[in-house]
Specification:
This protein is of the alpha/beta class. Helix content is about 45%, strand content about 15%. The strands form six sheets. The chain has an eight-stranded parallel beta barrel, surrounded by six helices. Helix 1 crosses helix 15 and helix 4 crosses helix 6. The longest helix is centred in the middle third of the chain and has 25 residues. The chain is elongated and about 100 Å long. About 0% of the residues have low confidence. The structure holds nicotinamide-adenine-dinucleotide. The site of nicotinamide-adenine-dinucleotide has 34 residues, from helix 26 and helix 27.
Length: about 950
């Protein structure tokens, strides 16, 4: 605060202005909270009962998706029965005709929605403008919308904003005022590709700008979720430079709940000053607090928002001060319903003698009424933020508004509904000194994925790609103790550029296999006796090395198996997680443990390693799966021989380096590269092998299970096989599913990493013909908006499949699909040996091969179901049982899926891929696996057997104290 304005002087003015505003406001609450009529009674009850409030929100959120009156009635009772609908009223309602209930419910929700959201018509815009003139207040119109997944939807958003300008001009707005969301201007606003996203946004914005400039409209760019902030700020700066017209006022919203906003504001002020350009800044508190906190916690990222609301309020005042100090280059819009925050701004403006035209207060439509007059009397300019749109498009907005205004901490609620003491509400915000949350380092927690919205993270990743490129062409010899003769070398290629030679890898010979097995057998006795704590320590050290080298390890995946940046980083994070998870687990399982108390005896159990363990891994999670199985083997005391898949052999060498650097002895942990049907086969058959951990296709898995079941001469132990195999995973889209979510998540589940995930969805089963048609059309358009190309370029969401032979196999299925069903969509992909353009098939029936065989590529079949039950039957009509997905809002259907949709990993209202170690232990049943999930509490035990020692401690009538009852 400026020295010249003394704090006490300011506080006394805040208090005086605040009391005055409060008096006027409290006597005329916003109509939602005025307690009148049925609406008043419903709102009053919802305010008192938090569970009812949650049920209401969930119901309202579902309502726009419901197609038939009976659907509306079913959901209405499902969410509200027993809460709002107890007693006689509830029983009577249940007897009513569904269409009457549906009509009444839609009418009631529609009415409440219209307190906040106006219809998207020229008449409604003009009516609101007139209504606001009477306050008087200006307006800013926000065309609220659903998620933009396709180019057509982005185009539609643009057209709605052009129409909004025209309607405002016709309605007499001088000048028109728009608030826009940049993420709605393109379906590809991913900050990982900042330059590309900026260009796409500016291109579409470029079609709005002529009309904006011509009408001198003010355009405020809204702030959105934290991840998009760098992109939004970047585009804003580019807009300023691209449109230097001095009479035009570009504006941006900043959120006070982000500690970072103070720095952003400083930079914007400097930027504006350097260009001698006035900019508008709308200061808001921030509307995505709950989501930001949940997402940060899920990702283990630092909280981007203040944890304590009072800190946000305090920063709001600090930023208000900075804005009002810089009105030479800033036009501040203080957007709040908090009377204290408003009074603070008014008092400060008065003390600074700022003309009323140099700043404004903004409030939301539906919330401004009581204050408008009070502000007008003080000559303060008021602008009302008016969302326009239909109920379906505006539902997310509506829910946010309802949550905000009815939460216990809401000032609006406290002011108008709870009748809190105005002195408390007008007191200066004081942050609570909360105890810092300490992470318990003894507990496992997942490795955070990289945040690619940060430029320094992207730069580091680019450097890693360059450094790996410099390592191309090296030789990767085998280092098996005792082998002198070299094997042949094979090349490892980059599927995005098959001519680029990544390296030459030595193939194991029979001598390599035999020596490796002899080494593993000999070193087992010592390794078994190595204390579990040492093995645990080595795993944790390996995790540390991987963490240090994470960008480089991910970069290798980009080149060797064609993963995009995010997928590659996630794979490394998962590998680190496995090392740490199994290390923590072994710390728990190591050593002798007492069984039950048995007087006169001691009984102890110990987990012991099985022996020589062969790890046979696939290429699609080239580091994570190989690391997971190997870490489990090693930490539990087995000696390990890794046999990676052909397409990911350099990555396997990187893992071997990491493990040796961590201190695992070379003969305890060995690597054999080579063909599965030669090297893999010889390993599986060998009598010295006691355990095989396999992840790969069903055919290979079954043949390993078969071979391991028999005894071969010289074999002393039965072989234990842990087998994780393929899937034919289905997602059910129920008739009430949220299409925004279902389309986006199905797209990621089916086409992420080109469909080459065992967890990938390859069937989507949609309930109802109408929904089927809408779903598949939107999915195809959303897929069409994605970009294909070399994954080292972050603009490409999708890259090549892993090899030319994989491409041939997938293309074969696409050809088959055209005879079995209808090729609904075929995308385009770059030329090249390993690119497959994605395909969506419809009219496939459950007996078709397309619906039964694992394709492992970017091919999806969309099937029809008559009912949810029917959809479940189709989903379960498969030999596999790995993952499944359900998009439904009906609690009964969710429960049904939970009990009947028997797969290893069932995902409800989220994508079916991306299981996290410890959070979603992963693995399937049926032909998908042997049923104990990786990254879960039971996995490690498979690598051990238990030994029990019982000792009789009775000595002629004396029972030692430790074995007494
Ligand atoms: P794949 O079965 O072709 O190969 C897997 C491994 O087995 C490779 O290392 C390969 O060299 C080896 N192998 C091949 N023939 C062998 C033989 N006769 N004896 C011993 N080893 C042999 O599978 P892939 O193409 O590498 O991976 C894709 C498959 O893996 C898909 O079916 C996918 O669903 C499955 N997968 C399953 C999971 C899971 O957790 N359930 C995870 C990832 C991948």
């Amino acid at each position: 605060m400026d020295e010249s304005i003394r704090e006490s002087q300011l506080e006394s003015q805040v208090s005086e202005i605040g009391s005055d505003l409060y008096r006027l406001a409290a006597s005329a609450p916003p109509s939602l909270l005025d307690g009148r009529g049925l609406k008043g009674r419903v709102v009053a009850r919802a305010l008192r009962d938090e569970q009812l409030r949650a049920a209401l929100f969930r119901f309202v959120d579902t309502l726009p998706q419901l197609q038939t009156p009976s659907d509306v009635a079913i959901h209405f009772f499902a969410y509200l029965e027993g809460r709002a609908l107890g007693g006689t009223w509830g029983r009577l309602l249940k007897l009513a005709n569904p269409s009457i209930i549906a009509r009444a419910v839609r009418l009631a929700v529609g009415r409440i929605a219209r307190y906040f959201l106006i219809e998207e018509t020229d008449r409604a815009v003009s009516r609101v403008l007139k209504q606001l003139q009477r306050f008087p207040a200006a307006a800013s119109f926000d065309a609220v919308g659903e998620a933009v997944l396709t180019e057509a939807e982005a185009e539609h958003y643009l057209r709605r904003n052009l129409a909004s300008i025209d309607w405002q001009v016709a309605g007499g707005a001088k000048p028109p005022h728009l608030s826009i969301k940049l993420s709605a201007l393109t379906p590809r606003a991913d900050p990982i590709d900042l330059a590309g996203a900026r260009e796409r946004i500016l291109t579409r914005l470029g079609r709005l700008m002529p009309r904006v400039l011509e009408t001198h409209a003010c355009l405020t760019i809204d702030m959105e979720q934290f991840e998009l902030k760098p992109l939004i700020l970047d585009v804003f700066r580019h807009v300023l430079d691209a449109y230097p017209e001095p009479e035009w006022l570009p504006a941006i919203a900043l959120q006070a709940y982000l500690p970072d906003t103070a720095t952003d504001l400083e930079q914007l002020i400097r930027f504006a000053r350097a260009r001698q350009r006035r900019i508008g800044i709308r200061l808001v508190k921030g509307a995505y607090w709950d989501t930001e906190v949940a997402m940060a916690r899920q990702r283990h990222w630092a909280l981007p928002v203040f944890a304590d609301k009072a800190q946000t309020d305090a920063q709001f005042e600090r930023l208000t001060g900075i804005l009002l100090e810089n009105t030479d280059v800033i036009y501040p819009a203080i957007a709040t319903h908090n009377i204290r925050s408003m009074a603070y701004a008014i008092a400060l403006a008065r003390l600074r003698s700022l003309p009323n035209s140099s700043w404004e207060i903004q409030a939301l439509y539906g919330m401004a009424d009581p204050l408008a007059k009070a502000l007008a009397r003080r000559g303060v300019s008021l602008r009302v933020y008016v969302p326009i749109g239909d109920l379906l498009a505006g539902i997310a907005y509506l829910i946010r508004r309802l949550m905000e205004n009815t939460a216990n901490t809401s000032v609006v609620r406290q002011t108008y509904a709870d009748g809190r003491d105005p002195r408390v509400l007008l007191a200066a915000p004081r942050a609570q000194a909360g105890a810092p949350i300490r992470a318990n380092s003894d507990e496992f927690s997942n490795t955070p994925h990289l945040d690619f919205s940060r430029s320094e993270v992207r730069s580091r990743f680019k450097l890693a790609l360059d450094s790996v490129r410099d390592q191309w062409g090296r030789e990767y010899p085998l280092a098996i103790h005792g082998v002198t003769r070299k094997g042949a070398y094979e090349t490892s290629i980059n599927p995005a550029e098959p001519n680029a030679l990544l390296g030459r890898v030595e193939m194991a010979t029979e001598a390599h296999v035999d020596h490796a097995l002899a080494n593993a057998r000999k070193s087992f006795a010592d390794w078994r006796e190595t204390p579990a704590s040492t093995r645990v320590e080595l795993c944790l050290r390996a995790a540390g090395i991987m963490l240090r080298r994470r960008a480089e390890l991910a970069a290798w995946q980009v080149f060797e198996v064609g993963k995009n940046w995010r997928e590659a980083d996630a794979d490394v994070a998962e590998a680190i997680d496995y090392l740490r998870y199994y290390a923590h687990d072994m710390a728990r399982l190591g050593g002798w443990q007492p069984t039950a108390l048995f007087p006169g005896q001691t009984n102890h159990l110990r987990y012991e390693p099985r022996g020589v363990t062969v790890i046979i891994a696939p290429w699609n999670f080239p580091l994570a799966i190989l690391t997971g199985m190997t870490a489990a083997a090693l930490v539990s005391g087995n000696t390990a021989i890794m046999k990676p898949a052909g397409p990911s052999q350099i990555i396997a060498h990187q893992l071997l380096d990491v493990l040796h650097e961590a201190g695992f002895p070379p003969q305890v942990c060995q690597l054999l590269t080579g063909r599965g049907d030669k090297v893999g086969q010889r390993l599986v058959e060998h009598p010295d092998v006691t355990m095989i951990a396999f992840t790969g296709s069903r055919d290979v898995g079954l043949s390993i299970l078969r071979q391991a079941a028999g005894l071969v001469p010289g074999q002393r132990q039965l072989k234990r096989v842990v087998c994780e195999m393929g899937g034919k995973n289905a997602i059910i889209v129920d008739s009430d599913a949220d299409l925004d979510e279902a389309v986006l998540q199905a797209l990621q589940s089916a086409f992420g990493y080109q469909g080459q995930k065992c967890s990938a969805a390859s069937r989507v089963i949609v309930v109802g013909n109408d929904l089927h048609d809408r779903f598949v059309a939107r999915l195809a358009d959303a897929l069409d908006a994605q970009s294909y190309g070399p994954p080292q370029d972050p603009q490409n969401e999708f890259g090549p499949v892993v090899s030319a032979s994989a491409r041939k196999k997938v293309e074969g299925y696409i050809e088959l699909g055209t005879s079995e069903g209808r090729l609904f969509y075929r995308g385009s992909a770059p030329d090249g040996d390993c690119y497959v353009a994605p395909a969506i098939f419809t009219e496939i029936n459950p007996q078709h091969r397309l619906a039964r065989e694992e394709i492992f590529g970017p091919v999806l079949s969309v099937l029809r179901a008559r009912s949810f039950d029917d959809a479940l039957t189709i989903a379960l009509d498969t030999d596999y049982g790995l993952t499944g997905g359900v998009f439904s809002r009906l609690p009964a259907h969710i429960e049904l899926a939970q009990s009947r949709f028997r797969v290893g990993n069932l995902y409800i209202n989220r994508r079916t891929t991306g299981a996290q170690v410890g959070v979603q232990p992963f693995g399937g049943i049926g032909h998908s696996g042997t049923g104990i999930q990786a990254g879960g509490p039971d996995y490690l035990k498979q690598f051990m057997w238990t030994r029990v020692v019982s000792e009789n401690t009775l000595r002629h009538g004396y029972v030692p104290p430790d074995s007494r009852q």
